[in-house]
Structure formats: structure tokens, C-alpha cells
Specification:
Chain lengths: 151, 551
């Protein structure tokens, strides 16, 4: 009986590995991989992007976009905090080690490492806290989530 | 032509043992009467096997002790340490640019690895790294494999079914229109080169890659999705200026990938992916606020791109195997994008809605019905509803995930696509296929009318589509259509939007828009264009007249 139970357990783990694409949880200290996040900047008009109760479309986009100086200054400040900023326009894409994100935004990241794709997804355990040094420019930090291919 | 590539984890080689005469340095052919002169001592064979094993090599000796060589395998690091060499991997291409194999090169000037300065110098006279398998025939084949089940082939069948073949004959091929696809990568399959299709690959911001070709482009598509879907795009618009933005391997930061695509200043972007949002997340919970911020982040990028005049096409969503209902695709439901849904065409050209494609009224955006128009999407199988969409035969990187996955029977997928798991062809056709087909039609329209705006593109696509009046789209939730999905009916509906897109009529109308602005059209034709712009349907005789005259 015990052997049967063990066999089922082994089969279960094998199936889990197959279906989950060899995903394991890692800590920020354990991984050298970088993660990225999107930074939503404060708009030029003062209208909040995340508190908006209307969707953002071509009809109203101008009221939600940040000014060019805001974009440049935010880029500079994130770089001074050790993040790389590969693209800065409507939103900022910032990249860095998970530990950097944890320290700067005072959060704990649940990091799911996928061995098959050698990629990592960060799930914050709480809302990122924008540090005082960025509060005048940044409205929110968004950790992206994997999408589905519509194959 | 060679390209630097990643070294394999394990490298195979033949190890040549010392014998009375040198095998590697002989200039004479070795025949059976000379074998004794080239045979190593049995004791040397045993000693060599032992020493190779001690150094970390896997050893595969011949059954016969009179063996002249020993097959070995080890990691690149072991070869480099033991023989004091540096290894590099290069990919070889044939004259047409097809990758034909990976070759390992070493820093010795000789054809073989010199062992004289290694611990094995007393045993071995040299090591010959194994050559890659050369395919005397083209591999993968540019021709799709025969399958017992009927399916559509690219480019011909798809071009006919989308009515693009006639547009091609009229000169609309998407020439010089910049189309970017954001997907898993683009493998240079012989299918593309033999058809004369061209493109390049750009890595998305934040994505990482190990294998690059000589142009500095990542050339692998280990999933196979982007390669396959791009064939749908070329089937409709063969002369486009194509770029694949390869997103990160975990499909994580797609906003960054989309921004990469926008930075290339294209005319059109095609995206066959998304998340499912049935309703707007609540801002009361932390998770809800996070999801809402993610939606707003996409919205900012999408609205900015469309405002710049870029036409964005997104898939409308598929039947989700996990949830047994259609995906409420986002960004597919954003009002600024063209949502590409699915319709199925039978061999006799009957068209029906398919339960493999989503159709819904958005809860995120008021009055937004998804899809706008349809491309070709498969029907779910009665035998295995979760494994539908076996409709389009598409080229993929040989042995990639889709090639293997779709060709392999498992407990959850008892059906296969009836191709070989390593042949570089796979059959798949969700709304992923519809998006590039619709993007291709946009390219034809843009060629016909360079000033075409995203709003005009959607409008013309909708008003020229072929109405689909039968069939049902994917079930969305119990309260929608009794849980069965929306029924297709005469006129626009949530099952197929305005119907199956018509490439020829869309390009023709775009051309008339252009001519109406730039030259003097006959008054009667001008009146037809004006009535079309007002939302009035052109009669079939009027369409036939326009098609006949081809102004």
C-alpha cells in the first residue's frame, strides 16, 4: 500500500514538473537574473493614471502622458538608484536584480524561476512603496505578468 | 558563411590511439591488409579508457579490443582543460542562408586536436571532433508534409480563403509597408527563403539571448509560435518589410516588447497574445489595484502608438483549455486596436463561426464588441475540445516546442497534428493566426492608401468583410447565450464581428479612398466611396463593377 502511495506521489511530482515547465521558487539573494518593471509616471495634466475611472484611449491620452522633463528626470533618478532604463517614454521600463527592487520599493518578491525558459517572474507580496526621492515623479510600479499565446 | 553560436552541453569526438603507424598522419589509404600496423596494443586501449574516464570523459569503446578509435563525449570545459585549447561553436549556412548545422572549432591549427601537451599524450595521438550531421537534402523541407486530415496550407490556401490572391494580382502585396510582429522569434525556415520572404529579428527590451547570427540577430524560435504565425502574415502580404520583435522567453514584460516594436516606427504591429480580463479589477484589493495598474500601463502604450498612426492588431482570444470558456482577451478588447477573431472556411467555401475563437461584449470598455473582424481559425475537435484549431499547416523551427507538442499524443491530448515532431511543420490555428492575417490586409490597404489611419483601417476592414451567419463562438460564461457562446447572425454580431475579412475588397476600397483624395474619379465612383464612408452598404453589382474596373 505504501509503495503504491509512493508511486503515485512520484508520478504526481513528475506530472507537476512536466506541466509547470520546471518552475521553482527562488529568493532574491539566490538569483543573478534580472527582472523588469514598468514605471507609471505622473501626468503633465495632474490627472492620475491609476485612479482614473475611465479607460485610457486615443481620445484622452494627452491628459495622461508625462512631460518630457519628467521622463528624463525619472530616468536619471532610477539610473542613480542602480537600475538600467532601456526605454523611457510614455512609461519607463526599468531593469535590475530582484534584490534591488526589494530594497528600493520595500517589498518582498515571490520569484518564480522557470528552468525551461531560464526566465523569472516576480510576484510582489505587497504594493511597492514609492521612495520619497521618486514620489514627485512616479505614480506606480507595475510588475508585468506572463501572457498567453493565442495559438 | 558562419555565425557564432552557443557551445552544446556535450561534445562528441573520436579519440585516436597510438599505434605502430600514425593514423592521422598517414598519407595512404588504410586497407584491410594494413590493419595490424594501425592497431593499438590491447593494454593501451584499457589504459586509455581508464584515463579518459578519470579526466571526466564519457567513453564509448567498441566491442572489439582491436578498436582503432574510441568515441568520447564531454562538456566543452573538460576538453578545454585537458587539451589546453579554446572551443567555439559556429553555425554554418548554405548559399541561400539556411542554417545547416553547428560546427565546433578549436584553437589548434591542425584539423584534429593535438594531444601532445596533455596528460593523455602517451595514449592518444589526436582527437577529431564529430562533424554535425549534414543533410544532403534541404532540411527542414520547404514543402509541408502530407497529412491524412484536410488543412489549409500557406501561402496559397490562406491567400485564397482571405481573398488576398486577387489583391496580389491587382498589385497589392504590402510592398515596403513596415510590419512588426511581437512574438517568440523567427526561425529562417526554407519556407520563407524559397518564397522570397524577407525579415529581420530584433530582441525586445529586457529580453536575453545567447545565440546570434552574423548580423547580430537572435535566430532561434524554440517555441515556434512566431515563426508559424509570420507565415500567415506573408501569405496575405508577401512583400512587406518585416521585423520580428522577439520577446523574453517567459512572455513576461510584453509592455516592454510592445514599446520595442513601437520604437521601430512601423506602419502596423501584429500581436497574437494577451491576458484574459472579464471585468475591470477591483481597486479595493491590493491584487486588483496591481492588475488595474497593469491594464493602465498597456493602455498608455497602446493609445500613444495608435495616436502616432500605428495600426495595432491583437488576437481576440481562444477557447481556454483550463477554464473551458473563451478568453476575454486584453489588449484585444482595447477600443483602439483591431480585434482579430475567428471564422472557419470549409473546402466548399462555406464560412462559419468557431467555438475555438472568443466573441464577447467587453466589460472594460463601453460598447466594445470583440472581435472587429475575423481571420481563419480552426474548429474545436469533438473528440478533444481543448485541442482544436488543427487547421493551418505552418512552418516552425524543427524540434521546437510546438513541433513536438502538437505531434505527440499524451493523456490530455489524444489527438496529434499528424506531422513529425522534428520535421519543422506543425498544424495550429487559434486567433493567433487571425491577427497576422488581418495585419497583412492592413498592409495591403496601407500600400493602396499611404495616409490610411488606424480608424480608417478598422472601418474599411469591417465594412468590406464577408458576413458570417452560422455557427457559434466560444462559450464565455453561463450568463452569455446560455453558456454556449454568441450565435453568428446576419449583420455584425459578437460571434464574428463584421465577419471574415476580405483582403481584395479592403485593398480596393483603400485604393479608392486614395484616388478620391488625389485624382479625379468618375462622379458615380465618388458617390459610391462617399456612401461607403457614410456607412451605407455597397450593393453587390456595385462591388462587382469596382472589381471589374480596377481603377
Amino acid at each position: 500500500m505504501r509503495k503504491i502511495s509512493q508511486s503515485f506521489r512520484v508520478a504526481y511530482y513528475v506530472l507537476c514538473l512536466l506541466f509547470m515547465g520546471y518552475t521553482v521558487e527562488v529568493t532574491a539573494q539566490e538569483t543573478s537574473l534580472t527582472i523588469s518593471a514598468e514605471v507609471l509616471l505622473k501626468s503633465q495634466s495632474g490627472r492620475s493614471v491609476i485612479r482614473s475611472d475611465v479607460p485610457i484611449t486615443t481620445e484622452n491620452i494627452k491628459t495622461f502622458t508625462p512631460s518630457a522633463p519628467t521622463i528624463q528626470e525619472a530616468k536619471r533618478r532610477f539610473q542613480s538608484l542602480g537600475f538600467s532604463v532601456p526605454i523611457a517614454n510614455t512609461t519607463l521600463t526599468i531593469m535590475g536584480k530582484p534584490i534591488q527592487f526589494e530594497e528600493v520599493f520595500k517589498i518582498k518578491l515571490n520569484l518564480q524561476f522557470n528552468k525551461t525558459s531560464n526566465s523569472i517572474v516576480a510576484y510582489p507580496s505587497s504594493e511597492p512603496i514609492i521612495p520619497d526621492s521618486l514620489k514627485d515623479l512616479v505614480e506606480a510600479i507595475v510588475f508585468p505578468k506572463p501572457v498567453d499565446l493565442m495559438k | 558563411m558562419s555565425i557564432t553560436a552557443k557551445l552544446p552541453n556535450l561534445i562528441y569526438a573520436e579519440a585516436f590511439l597510438h599505434s605502430k603507424n600514425s593514423i592521422l598522419n598517414t598519407d595512404k589509404p588504410i586497407t584491410s591488409d594494413m590493419l595490424a600496423d594501425f592497431s593499438p596494443e590491447p593494454s593501451l586501449i584499457q589504459a586509455t579508457i581508464k584515463q579518459l574516464s578519470q579526466e571526466g570523459f564519457e567513453v564509448y569503446p567498441s566491442q572489439s579490443l582491436s578498436t582503432k578509435t574510441i568515441t568520447i563525449a564531454a562538456t566543452p570545459a573538460i576538453y578545454e582543460r585537458v587539451f589546453k585549447i579554446k572551443l567555439t561553436a559556429v553555425l554554418q549556412k548554405d548559399d541561400s542562408g539556411q542554417i545547416i548545422g553547428k560546427v565546433i572549432r578549436h584553437s589548434n591549427n591542425l584539423q584534429w586536436i593535438d594531444t601532445s601537451s596533455s596528460s593523455l599524450s602517451q595514449c592518444l595521438e589526436g582527437i577529431l571532433l564529430s562533424d554535425p550531421i549534414s543533410h544532403f537534402a534541404t532540411f527542414p523541407s520547404p514543402f509541408p508534409p502530407p497529412t491524412p486530415k484536410w488543412c489549409l496550407h500557406v501561402p496559397g490556401d490562406v491567400a485564397i480563403a482571405m481573398n488576398a490572391a486577387r489583391a496580389h494580382r491587382a498589385g497589392f502585396t504590402g510592398k515596403a509597408i513596415k510590419v512588426v510582429m511581437v512574438d517568440t522569434g523567427w526561425y529562417l525556415h526554407p519556407f520563407f527563403s524559397r518564397h522570397g520572404y524577407h525579415g529581420k529579428v530584433v530582441l525586445a527590451y529586457g529580453a536575453q539571448e545567447t545565440d546570434y547570427d552574423e548580423r547580430g540577430e537572435p535566430f532561434q524560435d524554440k517555441m515556434g509560435h512566431g515563426t508559424g504565425e509570420s507565415a500567415n502574415l506573408f501569405a496575405i502580404a508577401p512583400d512587406i518589410d518585416f521585423t520580428m520583435v522577439k520577446h523574453d522567453a517567459g512572455y513576461v514584460n510584453m509592455t516592454a516588447a510592445l514599446k520595442t516594436a513601437i520604437s521601430l516606427k512601423p506602419d502596423i504591429i501584429s500581436c497574437s497574445w494577451g491576458e484574459s480580463f472579464r471585468s475591470l479589477p477591483s481597486s479595493v484589493t491590493s491584487g486588483g489595484r496591481e492588475a488595474l495598474a497593469r491594464i493602465r500601463s498597456y493602455e498608455l502604450v497602446i493609445a500613444t502608438a495608435v495616436q502616432q498612426g500605428i495600426i495595432l492588431v491583437f488576437s481576440a482570444g481562444n477557447l481556454s483549455p483550463q477554464e473551458k470558456q473563451g478568453q476575454w482577451a486584453f489588449p484585444g478588447q482595447h477600443p483602439d486596436v483591431i480585434a482579430a477573431g475567428g471564422a472557419f472556411m470549409y473546402p466548399d467555401e462555406r464560412i462559419t463561426a468557431t467555438q475555438f475563437a472568443s466573441g464577447f461584449v467587453s466589460n472594460l470598455y463601453r460598447n466594445r464588441v470583440v472581435p472587429d473582424v475575423c481571420g481563419l481559425v480552426g474548429l474545436p475537435s469533438a473528440m478533444e475540445p481543448n485541442f482544436g484549431g488543427l487547421y493551418l499547416m505552418l512552418p516552425v523551427q524543427p524540434g521546437c516546442n510546438l513541433d513536438k507538442q502538437l505531434a505527440t499524443k499524451t493523456l490530455t491530448t489524444p489527438m496529434t497534428d499528424e506531422t513529425n515532431p522534428e520535421d519543422g511543420w506543425a498544424v495550429f490555428s487559434g486567433t493567433s493566426a487571425a491577427a497576422p492575417q488581418i495585419a497583412g490586409i492592413c498592409a495591403l490597404m496601407k500600400q493602396a492608401y499611404p495616409q490610411l489611419s488606424p480608424t480608417q483601417a478598422k472601418y474599411i476592414l469591417q465594412r468590406t468583410a464577408r458576413d458570417v451567419t452560422t455557427g457559434v463562438s466560444a462559450p464565455m460564461m453561463p450568463s452569455v447565450g446560455g453558456g454556449a457562446g454568441y450565435k453568428a447572425a446576419p449583420g455584425p454580431d459578437a460571434a464574428t464581428g463584421f465577419g471574415l475579412a476580405d483582403a481584395d475588397r479592403a485593398a480596393l476600397m483603400a485604393r479608392l479612398y486614395h484616388l478620391a483624395e488625389t485624382s479625379s474619379l468618375p462622379a458615380e465612383i465618388l458617390a459610391m466611396v462617399a456612401s461607403f464612408k457614410r456607412g451605407e452598404n455597397l450593393s453587390e453589382p456595385n462591388w462587382q463593377r469596382l472589381e471589374k474596373e480596377r481603377l
